[in-house]
Amino acid sequence: MAWVILDINMHKIIILKLKYIVPIVFLLVAFPFFFLGGPSDYSSSLFRSVWDCGHLVFFIALVIVLSKKFELRNWCVGLAISAAVFVGGGLIELIQSHVGRDGSWNDLLRDLTGTWLGLFWAQRANKWIWLGRVLTVALLIPNLSSVFYEARYQLNAIQQFPLLAGYESNIELYGHGGKIELSSQFHTQGDYALKVALTTKQYSGIVFRRMINDWSAYKTLSFDIYNPDPPLFNMTVRVNDVQHKQSGWATSDRFNRTFSLNQGWNHLSFSLDDIRNGPAKRQMDMSQIMWAEIFVEKLPVARTIYLDNLRLE
To answer: What's this model's pTM, rounded to 2 decimal places?
Structure first.
């Protein structure tokens, strides 16, 4: 009987040690990634969202380790840890902005959210602890929602490729700015097209940043635009690859082509060879397309167009 009790106690000790050893190892391994590695310019938005959640996991692990030395139920300890994370996380973001990374206040909020998740979920619950748990879970929702919607968007993009945008689902609106909505009034494939309200601002249109990047196996970029009202006006299609950033976003280092929109349906096609040769001093890398945009410059009056069937052929 004594041996059984000893064996049980040994297992408890091992589990207790692992509870702290694993987070310590994780912290040591993960810390350099605040400054090294991470998403590149052509990484998917899903990868970026998952990577951002690493802030949450890191600071949850940090609190678990600190709980070995400090009494988390003491509110002064919780305030001190939160203040230290705010200062330390802020310094990390400032350093990142000087070593080729993007510093972000959203990352600092993730740091604090992970800290509070650890503080409130790593101790025995009472009504105040449960209130803290509810509040921290509420702060967690935007991060989990981002991962969920980015995953849905990417799955949809993979399933319909080489159709880049067919606008048969609201998920295709995710991440787009401007005044846009799905419309069944005019379309060339499926049941819907994208209704785009063009404004009188300097530039107005729609940007595609969540595409499949590799266009190298195709020959043309095509899309359909319905212009319901006269007179005709000009729009521009822009495409650039990852390397374009190195030029300082120079117009001469990308593909820009202006076209006229007549009233009614306009069926546009652009050779990917022309797009490849768009930069003045090099060839575009068609396996790392980063950005496509269809826009208008400084309209005298607001207009509406319907975009559909953006595809590679």
So the answer is: 0.78
Nearest one of 239, 245, 230 to 268, comparing CA atoms: 239
Kindly give, in sequence order, each residue whose CB lies less than 8 Å from that of residue 106, ignoring residues fewer than 6 positions away.
52
DSSP letter assigned to residue 170: G
Min mean pLDDT across 53-62, 74-83, 97-106, 233-242 is at: 97-106
As a whole number of angstroms, the distance between CA 295 and CA 175 comes to 17
Q: Which residues pair with 291 in a beta bridge?
A: 240
Beta strands in the chain (DSSP E): 163-165, 180-183, 193-198, 203-208, 220-227, 233-241, 255-261, 264-271, 289-297, 303-312
pLDDT at 35: 65
Distance CA 301, CA 45 (A): 34
Radius of gyration of the chain (CA): 26
Residue among 278, 213, 183, 181 at smallest CA distance from 46: 213
Q: Which domains does the chain show, CATH number per domain?
A: 2-157 (no CATH), 164-312 (2.60.120.430)
> Is 53 a residue whose pLDDT tops 90?
no
- Angstrom CA distances, 307 to 156, 218, 264, stand at 18, 21, 12
Query: What's at 20, amino acid-wise?
Result: Y
Examine the pLDDT at 6 and tell me if it is beyond 60: no
What sign for the dihedral angle of Cα 19, 20, 21, 26?
A: positive
Q: How far is CA 219 from CA 166, 215, 255, 274, 312, in A?
A: 19, 8, 15, 10, 7
